[in-house]
Every structure is written in C-alpha cells, then in structure tokens.
Design goal:
By secondary structure, the chain is α/β, with parallel strands linked by helices. It is built from 14 helices and eleven strands.
C-alpha cells in the first residue's frame, strides 16, 4: 500500500514496532520512517492500520487520538473490529474510522514480499459503521481508487459472512488437506512424491502465517463454522454420489464447477463465454513474452493468465483464459509460434 500510495503521488510515512522490519520497508518503498505511532499518525490525512486482528482496535484508537486523520484497517474480519472501536472510542473521534479489507495479497508476508501490484485491480471492501461520517467514507473511497483498487462499501457483518466463504474456508480446506500428510498417521506418506501442480495449487494457502490465521478464524468464528458446515454438507453429498455410483450426478457437479471456475478469472463483463487453454512452456527467459506477443499479433486479448511450474524440471504450464469466440484464433497463432496449446474448457 505504501508503494501504491507513493506511485499515486502521496507522501507516505510508516511505523513498525520492529525496527528491522521498518528498515526493510523503507528500503523497499521509500516511505519516511516514523519514530513512533503518534509521529506516524499525527501528521497524516489517512492512516492504514496493518496488524493482526486482535491489535487493530486499540491501535485504531491511538491513531484517532493522535491527530485528525481518517483511519482504516486491513483486517479480514470487520464486525469484531467495528464493535471494539465503538466501545473504546468516543462518538466524536470514531466518526473518522472506516473498516477496510483489501482483497489482495498472498500467502507470503513481510516487506520482502511487498509489491504495489498486490492492490492493482482488487476489490477493496470498506465497512463504515452507522456512526461513521459519510464524508470520511467518500474520501476513503477516492483514496482507494487512487491506489488502483475498486472500493466496495458494505455492512461489516455481511462482509464477514462473505469472506468466510471465499477466503477463510479455502484457508481451512487447504490447511486440513496438507495436515493430512504432516503427521505419523498420514494415510499414505509417500503419496506426496506423486503430488503435481493440482495438489500444490489446492494447498498453497497452507503456507500462510499460522498466528495470523488462528486470530482471523477466532475473530470470525460463527461465520467460519457456518461456511465449514455448508462445505461438509456438499462434500457428503459428493461422497454419497460416488459411493452410490450415481455417475451422472457427480459428472453434472464437475461440469458446473468447471464452468464456474472458467468464469472466475475473467473480467466481470466477459465472465460468460470464456475458454481456457493450457500451454506447456520451457522455463527460460523471454518465453512468456513470446506467448503474449503471439496473442497480440493475432488480436487475441488475455482475460486471465496463470503459470504452474513443474517440480521435476525446467518447464511449466500456462493456463490462459480468452473469450470463447477467440479460442481457435489463440490456438492457431500459438501453434504457429511453436507452442502446443490444449483447450480444457
């Protein structure tokens, strides 16, 4: 965020209780280091609190009392934070607080993993309370746009229910699947030697910070439990379908899931009628540029692109999403350049 704010022309000041972390952040983003939280917040127009869930509310209060800035946070649970700020701060000061949750980032943490691209094009949820100043919300909406993200204003509790499904449940599922192989009671310890890109994709989130996520799951307990119950119910239905040899029923679920997944990565205006191509590529400099330039020459727009690397050698697979009516053209121009595209959806 500091990188994105600086890119947008803002002067950025930062503070971290760990001097080593702050030094790396300064080097990476060119922000001005502050000697204290008060120094950081006191002269600012907008303050963004980036801490674990349990620390957000008291630090928000400190920032509100340090000056006249609008204060927001990046916690992935909003209802708990809003309630705690309300109980800790007077009505006059808390009017300048707007809960926030930028829906971007990765499983990697720390300033070493920072990039302004992590906020580009993402949904950035803002959750004003009934007592929040509407002008403060409007100002923060514009600030989020300046950073390259898309602000979405919603109720804090609705936000928590939604992220339990699309963020917290995937974290739990990923961690549980990986944990199956982490104990002496693993069903097949040697199975990991056979794990391919699919297993790595599904378990990527298991590499997230355990301390951070245990706090998130605790803070959003009710919504997460409801999401897990819903997921378990669907898993049990699939299990029964497989056990009872209801092949057509299981196939229909897989077809629906593939269709939904194909639309997930595309821009909102083209989520219908997209195609996915898989293209094996060698792991060498310039290969991605060759692929994208071929598509450009063929007048094929890229709606989404992902790269999966092979653990066994210098190669990988590009997953390319294009408009369905341009899939044949994409395949043709890529084949002309020596690639071997295969349409999977």
């Amino acid at each position: 965020m500091a990188m994105a704010a600086a890119r947008a022309g803002h002067a950025v000041t930062g503070f971290d209780r760990d001097p080593g972390v702050l030094a790396v952040a300064v080097e990476r983003s060119s922000l001005r280091p502050a000697d204290s939280l008060g120094d950081c917040a006191g002269g600012s127009d907008v303050v963004v609190v980036c801490t674990p869930i349990e620390a957000i509310a008291p630090i928000v209060v400190d920032c509100l009392e340090a000056g006249s800035a609008l204060v927001t946070d990046v916690g992935s649970v909003k209802g708990k934070v809003v309630v705690e700020v309300e109980t800790r701060e007077s009505s006059t000061e808390r009017r300048r607080f707007i809960g926030g949750h930028p829906m971007g980032g990765s499983e990697r943490g720390g300033p070493e993993s920072a990039s302004a691209s992590l906020v580009e094009g993402i949904a950035w949820v803002l959750t004003p309370a009934p007592w929040t100043d509407p002008d403060a919300t409007a100002t923060l909406v514009e600030f989020v746009r300046e950073l390259g993200a898309h602000p979405i204003v919603m109720d804090p509790d609705r936000h928590d229910a939604m992220v339990a499904l699309v963020s917290h449940l995937p974290q739990v599922a990923s961690s549980v699947l990986m944990e199956m192989f982490a104990t002496d009671e693993a069903p097949e310890p040697d199975a990991l030697a056979l794990a391919g890109s699919g297993f790595r994709d599904v378990t990527r989130l298991a590499g997230s910070d355990p301390e951070l996520w245990s706090g998130i799951l605790e803070a959003n307990r009710d919504a997460v439990v409801a999401a897990i119950d819903m997921f378990v119910e669907r898993l049990q239905a699939v299990r029964k379908g497989i056990a009872d040899e209801r092949t057509q029923e299981v196939r229909e679920l897989l077809v629906d899931a593939r269709r939904a997944r194909a639309a997930l990565g595309a821009k909102p205006q083209v989520r219908a009628n997209v195609a996915v191509l898989q293209i094996p590529v060698p792991d060498r400099p310039g290969v991605l540029a060759e692929l994208t330039s071929a598509l450009g020459a063929g007048d094929v727009n890229i709606e989404d692109l992902q790269i999966v690397h092979s653990p066994w050698g210098p190669s990988g697979v590009v997953h390319l999403t294009v408009l369905a009516d341009r899939a044949d053209a994409a395949g043709a121009v890529l084949a002309e350049r020596g690639f071997q595209p295969f349409r999977v959806a």
